[in-house]
Amino acid sequence: MTTVYRKTKGLQDRDLHYCPGCGHGIVHKLVAECMEELGLIDSAILVCPVGCSVFAGNYFACDCIEAIHGRAPAVATAIKRTHPDQLVVTYQGDGDLASIGAAEIVHAAMRGEKFTTVFINNAIYGMTGGQMAPTTLLGQRATTAPLGRKKELHGSPMRVCELLASQEGLAYAERVCVADIPHLNQAKKAIKKAFELQLAGVGFTFVEVLSACPTNWGMSPVEANKWLMENMAAYYPLGVIKEAQAK
Amino acid sequence: MTVFLHFDRDKCKGCELCVSVCPRHILALDMSGTNEKGYHPATVTDPSKCIACASCAKICPDSVISIEKE
User: Label partner for A65 (CA 20 to 30 A): which of A21, A51, A73, B50?
Assistant: First the structure.
């Protein structure tokens, strides 16, 4: 008897509180599997955000610390500078990272802090009830934009990978999604590569994961993944956005 | 090859992502009952057709599915 698939040891044996079909559960698994495959569960330090994934520390088997809203990169900076040989990862959603935490993430990239950020972009505020986020698509409805996001009123959605790519300290940025199996496999490769580059000390590494929020989008999980591929992946191009050459 | 699909029934939230990615179309929600969370949990309708690709297990947000083969 051989095991084809089992739950990763990088996650604790606890039920997740996320809604059915939420992308957070999938990305949690990918991050935890990468930690397990690299043998880093006992040494990695995860900085958790505010938002739906605020309880991520209850699920990961590695050491976790909770940051205040949007400030995970600042906390991770301190941890990585004092523990330079350990894997340090921030796990942040789009409300946390692209809105209230925009300054922290840009400055972490500017300074070239040698940790990894896994950025979950689901184009909406999940936990607080579906408000418009900086990443909400034009025309997409939210509780604070009931007629859909308008460019002249709310501006255009923020492409965070491209924004950070302008900073020299950013060593690696890739945008992936978890809407189907081929893209999910690529997402895992990207996260693993970011971890390996971090351990090689090349600079700030960043993986943006397009992820579905079926509850606040008002769709079934299967419909939400289809909508993600048709709409989000069209505005947020998938693939490597920046990869600095090793020195 | 015999494949053993195990569903942690009470962890399932019935999102149907596993059903949507199965290349052999042998997964479905069990409409005959609910689990302790109150959802119709996913189940396999014809395990003999399973090819152990693990697509269902990989996309499951709640790590409900584990797979063994011999």
Answer: A21
Model pLDDT for residues B32-56, shown as the tens digit of each residue = 999 999 999 999 999 999 999 999 9
* CATH class of the region B3-69: alpha beta
In this structure, is residue A13 part of a structural domain?
no
- CA angle A217/A219/A224 to nearest 5° reads 80
Spatial contact of A91 and A118, defined as CB atoms under 8 Å apart: yes
Largest CA distance in chain A: 61
ipTM: 0.96
Hey, is the C-beta of A11 within 8 angstroms of any chain B C-beta?
Answer: yes
Question: What single DSSP character describes residue A228?
Answer: I
Q: Chain A partners of B39 at a C-beta cutoff of 8 Å?
A: 20
Cβ distance A197 to A117 under 8 Å?
no
- Rounded CA-CA distance A162/A145 in Å is 25
Range of the domain at A204: 23-240
Distance of alpha carbon B29 from alpha carbon A21, whole angstroms: 14
Nearest CA in chain B to A6: B66
Residue A10 belongs to a domain:
no
pLDDT tens for A210-224 read 999 999 999 999 999
For residue B29, the chain A residues in CB contact (below 8 A) are none
Binary contact (A5, B21; C-beta < 8 A): no
How many domains are there within chain A? 1
A16 inside domain? no
Which residues between 25 and 64 in chain B have a beta carbon less than 8 angstroms from any beta carbon of chain A? Answer: 39, 52, 54-55, 57-63
Does the beta carbon of A9 lie under 8 angstroms from any beta carbon of chain B? Answer: no
Cross-chain residue pair B65–A181, CB shorter than 8 Å = no
